[in-house]
Amino acid sequence: MFTLRTSCALAGAAAAGVTICSDRQKLFAPQTHAHSVALMNPNAPDPLTWKNRSRTEEMASLQKNEEYDLLVIGGGATGTGVALDSASRGLKTALLEREDFASGTSARSTKLIHGGVRYLQNAIMKLDREQYGLVKEALHERANLLRIAPHLSSPLPIMLPVYRWWQVPYFYAGIKMYDLVAGRKCIKRSYFLSKKKALERFPMLKKDKLVGAIVYYDGQQNDSRMCLAIALSAAREGATLANYTEVLELIKVKDEATGKMVVRGVRAVDRMTGDEFVVRAKCVVNATGPFTDSVRRMDDQERTAICQPSAGVHIVLPAYYSPASTGLLDPATSDGRIIFFLPWQGRTIAGTTDSPTAITDRPQPAEEDIQFILNEIRHYLSPDVNVRRGDVLAAWSGLRPLVSDPSSKNTASLSRNHVIDVSDSRLITIAGGKWTTYRSMAQDTVNRAVKVCPSLRPARPSATDGMLLHGAHGYTPLLSIRLAQDYGLDGEVCEHLSQSYGDRSLEVAKLASLTGLRWPVIGRRLVGEFPYIEAEVRYAVRNEMALTAVDVIANRLHVQVGDAQAVGDD
After folding, report:
1. Per-residue DSSP letters for 337-373?
2. Of 20, 78, 294, 414, which is the most buried if we count CB atoms within 10 A?
């Protein structure tokens, strides 16, 4: 059920000539560096003026029966990352997504871009080289993401409260090691705060027995829009992408060189029209996250499952539960898990990770998980803060695909790193890993594809390390001021638009309607307490391949994450 104003906005967009399907229907790098990267692709359009094709045009291109170099199944962070990396090398690339882009795991994260403090602890305590390598790689990718998408990401200080004196040197040494591993890519050096300073910074903390706190830095992101930016960047580089397109069958042909049957395409269906068609490709990549094994079994019914999904449950609380610019980490909850307590877009996110769960299309948080998070929060907050179940504005559960390496001797152990599996028929599966490392996962996947598929001949090396994402090329922190002065938008709306669309916020502003007020001049809000405006609905349908109301509200605006009740209130 959607708000009255949202429904009006959708109707207004339709009246403006935009076709909308309802849900019921089927450390920043200088810009000169980005331009030098773009010059590696002689056919790359100007990122400031480029406009993506409509979904109708993308579907028509897919059905021309032309052979692609690389076909990606899955439109989450990993899949769109593979498509971008492949296209950046000059390979003819296509991507098919059964639902909408970032409609699953990629939009249900903790919103952090991080190296993994707990992984570093395990690496040191257990002398685990794999986890150390994961942290090192993630810290590099953290710096890269903050640089290539400054409109969708930002540094975030996170506080680690200390309640025993002996823990001060222990935690301090661990966090300093985190800084050391980051090296030149360290966002800002960690530091210790006295009890007085800690309470000034985070006044909601429980005072009793508090010794002090350690503050370190990680990154924060708008995960759903980040995934969309990666997808649109892939399209800018020449990739063909289609949402609501389901793969029904893998197509195999006999390889003349080896005599083996190899995967050379898929049979797919457009879920909006029911039309079936074939997409041929020299190489097919399975990047379907928690649904990894279902595609692997399309290839071979007898394949052993490698994916064990883990649920990450999060709840959203009012802003007064945390400071506006500082997060909190509980490193040792009552059952050994960790909890992050983070400010996010005028709300507070609290969440834990790694609870074994079954695979489902629409994972729902259990009440016991919500109560667990609330109980753990009570341990850290002042008794003056009444932690209430009624304060939970929204809750969600995301499936993280932990995997076992089929090539490992110990297939029962789960890997925190990503795993690339190549079947006898050359189906390439990329699984595991984490949001932060999507780019390096994608690069490794395309490297493997080039190695195992001799007919793939990239024109150039991967160019994604340092390549600015869609919306970043003309972005500056002062863009919101330009929106207010040039278009007469409300200040809060200007901040939201600049931090969601980057340089494309100017295009959104041009679609805004007059309010009939003296101020703001334009920009009718969809819901009074949120900065989302009607123009965003029009822009999402025209420029971001949104097909349903849910695509706009949940995956483009992220309204349900901020406050689920607002979706149904007038």
Report:
1. --EEEEEETTEEEEEE--EE----SS----HHHHHHH
2. 78
